[in-house]
Design a protein that fits this description.
Layout: H1 2-29, E1 33-38, E2 43-46, H2 48-54, H3 58-61, H4 66-70, H5 76-87, E3 94-100, E4 106-117, E5 123-132, H6 134-152
Antiparallel strand pairs: 1-2, 1-5, 3-4, 4-5
């Protein structure tokens, strides 16, 4: 019985190691931005896609404060609120976030957050994964501007095709 228990324990251990490897491989290759932050908002993990869309190398990102690197214009009170919500395990599970690339461009992410805890329930940090929604946000802004322009137009507007048909 002991030999059987050791065999199954070893087999389950190797399977769990395989699952961890597969999970990490998925996070590295998926076309979604993924990052893990500690309780002080230092970046302890980021995947390749986040690096691609922001233009940074892994060496430039790991260990840096999220806000200083990706959101330098975030007001201090918003930073404090984030850290307080994280510490209280009260961080919202979803949200949209504006980030800045290495070149200074703005990108938007729709994030899903998971609070990370130790075995005693103490908050260690947060893992976030999200979709780059920059193009959608830009399209929404363009539609909003067009709508505002149409509503503000003092004269009648007529749209025709190249034949002059309204």
């Amino acid at each position: 019985i002991t030999i059987s228990a050791i065999y199954f324990a070893q087999k389950n251990y190797s399977l769990s190691r395989l699952n961890v490897y597969q999970f990490r491989e998925l996070l590295e290759k998926v076309q979604l931005a993924a990052a893990t932050l500690d309780r002080e908002a230092r970046i302890i993990f980021c995947n390749d896609y986040l690096l691609i869309i922001t233009g940074y190398s892994r060496e430039e990102v790991i260990g840096q404060n999220w806000f200083n690197l990706f959101a330098p214009t975030t007001p201090e009170q918003d930073r404090i609120n984030f850290l307080d919500e994280l510490a209280r395990d009260d961080l919202g599970p979803q949200g949209e976030l504006q980030i800045q690339t290495k070149e200074g461009d703005c990108r938007y992410l729709a994030l899903n957050n998971t609070i990370l805890k130790d075995t005693k329930g103490n908050v260690l940090g947060v893992a976030s994964i999200g979709e780059d929604i920059t193009e959608r946000k830009r399209n929404e802004e363009a539609l909003h501007l067009q709508s505002a322009a149409l509503n503000a137009a003092a004269n009648a507007i007529v749209i025709t095709d190249i034949s002059g048909i309204i």
